[in-house]
Amino acid sequence: MNSFQQLALELGAELLDAQRLAGGVSARVTALDVRQKGHCRRLVVREYGRQDLIRAPDLAVREFQLLEELYRAGLPVPTPVHHRPGLLVTTFLEGQNGATALADPRQLARFLVRLHALDPAGMGLPLLSGPCPAPAAPDESLSESRIRSALHDLNQGEPGRLSVLHGDLWPGNTLWQAGQLSAVLDWEDAAVGDPLADVGNTRLELLFSEGEAAMQAFTREYGKYGDLDLDRLRYWDLRAALRPCGRLASWGLEPAVQAHWERRHAWFIHQAGA
Question: Does the domain at residues 96-271 carry the CATH identifier 3.40.50.150?
Answer without folding.
Answer: no
